[in-house]
Structures are given as structure tokens and as C-alpha cells.
Amino acid sequence: MNHKKLSKFDTKIYSAIEKEKQRQEQGLEMIPSENFVSPAVLEALGSILTNKYSEGYPGKRYYGGCEFIDDAETLAIERAKKLFKAEHVNVQPLSGAPANVAVYFALLKPGDTVLGMDLSHGGHLTHGHPVTYMAKIFNFIRYKTTSAGKIDYKQIEILAKKHKPKIILVGYSAYSREINYKKIQIIADKVGAITMADIAHIAGLIAGGQMNNPVPIFDVVTTTTHKTLRGPRGGMIMCKKKWAKIIDKAVFPGFQGGPHENNIAAKAVAFKEALEPTFKTYAKQIMKNAKILEQEFKTRNYKICFNGTDNHLLLIDLNNKNLSGKEAQEALDKAGITVNKNMIPDDPRSPMDPSGIRLGTPALTSRGMREKEMKIIAGWIDQVIINRQNDKKLAEIKKQVVKMTKKFPLYK
Ligand code: DSN
């Protein structure tokens, strides 16, 4: 990463980038939705493709000079199709939230009903949380998980029969278990609903063959490309051929303008990486690492929501440790360990000061960290939580964190 021109022209932005680079290098990044892209992805992202306007789709653009842009976007589409066994792919959504909104606009009329997971049980804001504009336009009904931490399929069926949703929505941001897509499809067929999955968090684990793939089963699947999939910040919609036209129209011209083609090219590069056999090994290791963290935390009497993990993340309920998620996040920050505070199922506390923390392994695994490091890191997290008011101890842990990160350089 050469920032020669920038360092001379804009010292303030250069300084912000350099400081952030150092923060990423010297810290343990455990926010489960974050990752480190490869230098090849970064190069495509920073390429001259950012200069081009290209409203429309490959072969059907509103601007001239799109022949090479078409090549890049077609490669992204074809690689995504192969990776997920998709009939149709739209790679233009700018991120996960716009991808979801475009699908709602494509498939719903104002007032139509969507059945989605409650936010505190692992759902996402764009799955109908009352603070979103979508919740003002459409009627979102929410299902939850059982007390044992499984998706409550029985409740989904009861609610589906009662509310006759146009869409049944699965796929979550803080839920750590596998999803039975076939079961959902059977329920949807009984009530004539369209099936939609938001696989933003687990797309890389699906691409790496480690988790169930809803794409061949479901009507529509949305994702981001920057989480476990390890691509640039962006979104994508995959669907059955019968929905292709209305989905494409909803993305452009319905909702977005000119696509970000530098970003789309970077997605294509990330998909090429995900098609390599080594990506399977990466996805497997993400999950192994998360399992080790689960064991280590359980041994130390931490309460893991949903009783454990089948994917890359853990949601930890801190009530028995007598601190909030916010306090834990702030103490961990001081020790160079980045997690995010998070609501737990039916959390009595507020989103800004919830009962839990959410953490995951994709970014650490990209650095090459494995079981041995996970055991050490779980011990540090526990020590931070025990010593949260002892700044000297937190600084000591930070020193050890920095020492460990030096063995796993980010961009060599
Ligand atoms: N912000 C993402 C996450 O952290 O899960 C979801 O949009």
C-alpha cells in the first residue's frame, strides 16, 4: 500500500489512515462482521474504475465506454453464481441494507407483511426494526428463538399461518447457530410466502462449504461482501430466475444510481479468492477458532447465548459477571481487543448499554491465528473483564496483545 502522493498532498487524511493502519495491526479485531481484505482486493478497490459512470447492466448501459466495465461486472456475476450456485446475481447493491431494501421494494407493496427475526434474538435492523423507514412502509412481524437458543420453527409456522406474510425472512447478525432452510421453505410453501435469506454474516462460511447454502432453495438471498466473504465493503442479491427482472429493476433505476464499478471489480477479485481451495481451509478454521473460544469461555463460567456457536460468532450474556456490554467493550478497547456491545435475547437494557458483547473470529483467522492463540485471547478477555477497573492491568494486557500481533503481520 503505497500512499506517496497522499502523504504529500493531504497530511491529515494520510495521518488518519496511518493511525488506523497501526490500530488494525496492533489490535485484536474481534467484531464478527469485520475482516481484512487481500492486497489484490485493495488494488482493485483503489483502481481507476472509480472514474466511470455505468448506469444499467452489462450490455444494457445508459452511457458509452462501458465495454471494460462490462467485463469486470460480468466476471463478478459469473464468479458469484459459481460460488453460491445461484441462478441470477446482482452485484450492484452498495451494501447489505440497500440490498435488503431493494428486495422489499421489488417484492412488496406498502402494507405487505414480512415475518423476520426479532433484533434482540439476532435479527438485523433492516429486518423490520421500528426505528427503520421500512417499518413505516411494511408490516413486520417478529419471531424469536426458543429458550434453548434454537430458531423457533413452530412459532414461525404459527405466525405464518396467522399473518400470511408475503416474505418469510431468515439470516441474522447476532445468531450463532445453523439454519434449516428446507424447513423454512416448507412453511413458506404452506402459506404461499416468498423465502428470503440474509446471509451477510455467514456468506464466507457458505462459500467455503462449511454451512448450509440457502441459494439453491430460497427465492431470494442477500448478502454483504465484506464480512466472512472477505471482499470489499458492498452488497449483493442472488435470486431465482423468475425474480431476476424485478430485482434488477428495483436496484436500478428503482433505488440506486450509478454502480460503484471499482467496488464491483474488487468483489470479483474476492470471489476468485473464495473459489480457491484454500478458502475452504480458511472458513473451516474460522469455525474451529470460534468453537475454541466457546469452550474457553464456558470453562470460565460465561453464559453463551443460544448455548454456543455453529458459525463464526459468539454472543455473550454478561449478567452473571456484573457488568454491561458497554463496560466490557470499553475495558477491552483499553487492552487492544475490539468487540461490540450487543443486545441479548429479550434484553431488559438499552441498545447503547446492553447486557452482552458479540465477538467473532473471521479477522483473527485471516491473520493466521489458530487454536493456540484463541486460548490465550479468551484468557486475556476474561482477565480484562475481571480487572476492568484496573487500568494498569489493562495496559499490561495491551502490551501482550501488541506482542502477539507482531507475529501475525497484516500486510507484509
Ligand atoms: N453492522 C453489521 C454487523 O456488525 O453485523 C450489520 O449491518
Q: What's the SSE blueprint?
A:
Blueprint: H1 4-9, H2 11-26, E1 28-29, H3 39-45, E2 56-57, E3 60-61, H4 67-84, E4 88-90, H5 96-107, E5 113-117, H6 134-137, E6 139-143, H7 153-163, E7 167-170, H8 181-191, E8 194-198, H9 203-207, E9 220-224, E10 235-239, H10 241-255, H11 261-275, H12 277-299, E11 303-304, E12 313-317, H13 325-334, E13 337-338, E14 340-342, E15 356-360, H14 362-366, H15 371-386, H16 391-406
Parallel strand pairs: 1-13, 5-6, 5-7, 7-8, 8-9
Antiparallel strand pairs: 2-3, 4-10, 9-10, 11-12, 12-15, 14-15
Helix pairs in contact: 3-11, 4-11, 5-10, 7-8, 12-15, 15-16
Structure description:
The chain has 412 residues and is of the alpha/beta class. The protein folds into two domains: 42-274, Type I PLP-dependent aspartate aminotransferase-like (Major domain) (Aspartate Aminotransferase, domain 2), CATH 3.40.640; 284-405, Aspartate Aminotransferase, domain 1. It is built from 16 helices and 15 strands. The strands form four sheets. It has a seven-stranded mixed β-sheet with strand order 4-10-9-8-7-5-6, sandwiched between helices. Strand 5 (113-117), helix 6 and strand 6 (139-143) form a beta-alpha-beta unit. The structure holds D-serine. D-serine binds at residues 33, 96, 124, 173.
